[in-house]
């Protein structure tokens, strides 16, 4: 009898463990956005759980950047709520975004300064890293993104891929649990895309960082993403996990094509 109870206890504990890992990082609840009488987002809802890498896929003009601007508190939704780590972005923006790093559109740097100087200035203004720790943290993030040997060079000598990695270094300054990237590989060559992909996968695996990555390029996302939210004309057309797709990449492409022709 005791063994049976022990067995049941172990099963319940294990199930409990699974539930703990299912921490909700992001809740997008019935978001709509109207601009100048035009409905740009229409009742968008989805959740994102810890340790996921979610591909936010949609054709040009489908509303991806608008939603990301809402998630990062840059604009308000017309209706609905965004909750990050249990805190509403609309009512407590600072708290909600405390452990969120984001690159919305292209990261902006002063090109006449070095990568290191840019990061030091940003860390002082935005990251909440104490002055004594700023230089150490900057050194750390430059190493994580593979720019430790280029930190003393001016940003205008960087390739686009390096600028994008510097953008991720910037997003990492505040030790985020969740990173939002809007079209991160825009304009990158295959080498830059590969480096970015490897960086995202490493940050997810080693540091447990959750990602939401928007793009209109399936090929770019399919090698890193574990779940998907697809939108077209401001509405979700499909959302699900990799495991819900078949074993081939064509399944995802097929979903995207079906979505485009709806
Ligand atoms: N401030 C604005 N005023 C008017 N229209 C806007 C505004 N912001 C966005 N839109 C329109 O909303 C739609 C969605 O734009 P959004 O930039 O969110 O799409 P997207 O999916 O990010 O596109 P892309 O992949 O081309 O970056 C577009 O038709 C765009 O023209």
TrEMBL record:
InterPro entries membership: AAA+_ATPase (IPR003593), ABC_transporter-like_ATP-bd (IPR003439), ABC_transporter-like_CS (IPR017871), P-loop_NTPase (IPR027417)
Domain of life: Bacteria
Keyword 4Fe-4S found: no
Tagged with keyword Transport: yes
UniProt keyword terms in alphabetical order: ATP-binding, Nucleotide-binding, Transport
Pfam family, one: ABC_tran
Residues forming coiled coils: none
Domain ABC transporter: 26-258
SUPFAM superfamilies found in the cross-reference section: P-loop containing nucleoside triphosphate hydrolases
Gene Ontology molecular function: any one: ATP binding
PROSITE patterns per record: ABC_TRANSPORTER_1, ABC_TRANSPORTER_2
Family the entry assigns: Belongs to the ABC transporter superfamily.
Name the UniProt record assigns to this protein: ATP-binding cassette domain-containing protein
Species in which this protein is naturally found: Metabacillus lacus
């Amino acid at each position: 009898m005791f063994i049976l109870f022990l067995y049941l206890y172990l099963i319940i504990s294990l199930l409990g463990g699974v539930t703990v890992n299912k921490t909700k990082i992001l809740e997008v609840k019935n978001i709509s956005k109207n601009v100048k009488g035009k409905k740009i987002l229409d009742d968008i809802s989805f959740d994102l759980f810890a340790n996921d890498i979610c591909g936010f896929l949609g054709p040009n003009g489908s509303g991806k950047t608008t939603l990301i601007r809402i998630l990062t508190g840059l604009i308000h939704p017309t209706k609905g709520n965004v909750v990050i780590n249990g805190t509403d972005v609309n009512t407590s923006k600072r708290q909600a975004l405390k452990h969120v790093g984001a690159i919305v559109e292209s990261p902006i740097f002063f090109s006449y300064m070095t990568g290191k100087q840019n990061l030091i200035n940003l860390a002082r203004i935005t990251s909440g890293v104490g002055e004594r720790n700023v230089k150490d943290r900057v050194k750390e993030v430059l190493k994580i993104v593979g720019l430790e040997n280029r930190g003393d060079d001016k940003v205008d000598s960087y390739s686009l891929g390096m600028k994008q990695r510097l953008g991720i270094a910037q997003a990492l300054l505040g030790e985020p649990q969740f990173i939002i990237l809007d079209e991160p590989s825009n304009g990158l060559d295959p080498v830059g895309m590969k480096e970015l992909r490897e960086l995202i996968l490493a940050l997810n695996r080693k540091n447990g960082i959750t990602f939401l990555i928007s793009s209109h390029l399936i090929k770019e996302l399919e090698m890193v993403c574990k779940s998907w939210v697809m939108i077209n004309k401001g509405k979700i057309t499909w959302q699900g996990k990799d495991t819900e797709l078949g074993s081939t990449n064509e399944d995802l492409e097929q979903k995207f094509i079906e979505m485009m022709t709806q």
